[in-house]
Design a protein that fits this description.
Strand order of the largest sheet: 1-2-3
Order of helices and strands: EEHHHHHHHHHEH
Distance between the termini: 25 Å
Largest sheet: 3 strands, antiparallel
Number of strands: 3
Radius of gyration: 16 Å
Oligomer: single chain
Shape: globular
Number of helices: 10
Helix content: 40-55%
Structural class: mainly alpha
């Protein structure tokens, strides 16, 4: 049986990506004979403001220096080099953050950058759908969950990026993707995400699809 559920505790994803988030988690288990998943999303209680500040901050960074943002997304976000370049970039334009300190996860930051760059380029759902179709025709099924979901439901994935972070609209957009999650999860494996992490992974997968570049790490 396939199941998607939200849990209000901290957890890490398995595999190459070791992202830790503090929002409720989206947990997906897929078996060989998958049935329709049971989906339950819970909104994070203290975290929405931090998620929204991050989205605003990255949009400001892209508006000020899109070339550096693009160069960052061409790198592997799981490496120390990426983290160092990310810190330099964010410190250079710390005026984008009015007061206080912002602590962020590398994956979440990369996902928000990807969304901001797609908006700046005025990319469309049609462009993502075309890129997904071409990718499947050229290379076959995607090897990673996020890329697989982006290829199976490109328009629904793009619609997700039009929703405000940490909102009811975002939750409904994620619910619309539930059909693709079980078949995109390898048999007999469990993938663990929260809404922030899943949205970030989908943003990176979509960005790399529409910019004709392969994802730089297995996490995409």
């Amino acid at each position: 049986m396939s199941e998607v559920r939200a849990e209000g505790r901290i957890i890490r994803t398995s595999g190459a990506m070791k992202a830790v988030f503090f929002a409720p988690l989206l947990v997906l288990s897929a078996a060989a004979a998958a049935q329709a998943p049971r989906v339950s999303y819970e909104m994070p209680s203290p975290e929405p403001i931090a998620v929204k500040i991050m989205a605003s901050f990255t949009s400001c960074l892209v508006a000020r220096d899109s070339r550096t943002a693009e160069a960052l997304l061409a790198a592997d976000f799981t490496t120390r080099d990426y983290r160092d370049r990310l810190q330099d970039f964010s410190h250079k334009y710390n005026g984008c953050l009015s007061g206080g300190r912002l602590r962020f996860n590398q994956l979440a930051f990369a996902g928000d950058l990807a969304e901001a760059l797609m908006r700046r380029r005025q990319l469309s759902a049609d462009r993502l759908a075309e890129a997904a179709q071409a990718e499947v025709a050229a290379r076959g099924p995607a090897p990673t969950l996020a890329r697989c979901v982006a290829e199976k439901q490109p328009r629904e994935v793009f619609a997700l990026f039009a929703t405000p972070h940490a909102s009811d609209e975002e939750r409904r957009a994620l619910m619309a993707l539930r059909e693709s999650l079980p078949p995109c999860t390898p048999a007999n494996q469990t993938s663990v995400f929260n809404t922030v992490g899943l949205r970030a992974m989908l943003a990176l997968a979509a960005y790399h699809l529409v910019t004709d570049g392969p994802p730089p790490s297995a996490g995409n």
